[in-house]
């Protein structure tokens, strides 16, 4: 029995997305920009997928721009917004626990002369409205903040951003990385009142290699790739049609967000309750976190050691963001967590397909791992 609980890294492709991709690969092989019938056929499929993603966000299809994934979409949002607004100011406000595609982009913009303020979360992993209010000013041209933290599941107060930007008389564009939130909680850019928002296919049971950036109508950003007329020149290059169509199919088959959320809420609590009965286990995720993510520490056993122990039992979780490739978590470090908890951190992440039976096997294996691996060090 394979137990896969690393869904914040990537999800298994749903049947609908896989079937759509295979159909398009075999039948819709024209270039969407070609003017002949095969091209028009491909353009029709592209437009259908764009509308499916737009509908899932409650926006107009013309506001969706396809990219190669969440990382490219985040880069496009951060670089594109900051460079478009630089004549109005040079300050960027973000957090110290953003995904590396935002964090490293902001670091690169510092080298271009931008001032970046990185808000550090409280020890719970949460960001307060007061912190945002103190950071944003009239010189701020971009505020970039994720909706859900990819390591702890902490939910950030993105709904407060527009009010603060207006109160501070800031010209800032607002960007939200919604990669971990999309498909799990209602994500509506117009309700958040943001200008830019990132989503990714492979976190909602689509394929790797496709993401999208919502760009609110009337919002101007500069491209970071130059080429043809595709995606209104915001992201030129021939669209990866089979993957994009799979994205559209996955967006159409998210299911009931509310029903899935309640099931994950119960499953997360079930998991946490069982894990806390094991000596040495502590919970790192805040109580109000997204229930799809549960970050814990198995104190006394290094993350990598426990992961390999579980892998031998066909159980797959992670120690944090897959993009970090095993490096110490900058998120938990920013939370001022003790070194022994950072070094032993485990991220368990669920999908709509996860079950209590899988959790039971995971808990049993972690308990066994703690008994064997801790004792082996004595």
Main features:
Aspartate Aminotransferase, domain 1; seven-stranded mixed sheet; alpha/beta; globular; 12 strands; Aspartate Aminotransferase, domain 2; 14% strand; 2 domains; 378 residues
Description:
With 378 residues, the protein is an alpha/beta fold. The chain folds into 2 domains: 3-12 and 256-375, Aspartate Aminotransferase, domain 1; 15-252, Type I PLP-dependent aspartate aminotransferase-like (Major domain) (Aspartate Aminotransferase, domain 2), CATH 3.40.640. The protein has helices at residues 15-27, 37-57, 70-85, 100-111, 129-135, 161-167, 189-192, 241-252, 257-275, 303-311, 330-334, 339-343, 356-375, and strands at residues 3-4, 64-67, 91-95, 115-119, 140-144, 173-177, 196-200, 211-215, 281-283, 293-298, 315-316, 345-349. Strands 2-8-7-6-5-3-4 form a 7-stranded mixed beta sheet, sandwiched between helices. A 3-stranded antiparallel beta sheet has the order 9-10-12. α1 (15-27) packs antiparallel against α8, α2 (37-57) packs parallel to α8 (241-252) and α10 packs across α13. The model has no long low-confidence stretch (mean pLDDT 95).
Secondary-structure map with pairings?
Layout lengths: L2 E2 L10 H13 L9 H21 L6 E4 L2 H16 L5 E5 L4 H12 L3 E5 L9 H7 L4 E5 L16 H7 L5 E5 L11 H4 L3 E5 L10 E5 L25 H12 L4 H19 L5 E3 L9 E6 L4 H9 L3 E2 L13 H5 L4 H5 L1 E5 L6 H20 L3
Parallel strand pairs: 1-11, 3-4, 3-5, 5-6, 6-7
Antiparallel strand pairs: 2-8, 7-8, 9-10, 10-12
Helix pairs in contact: 1-8, 2-8, 3-4, 9-13, 10-13
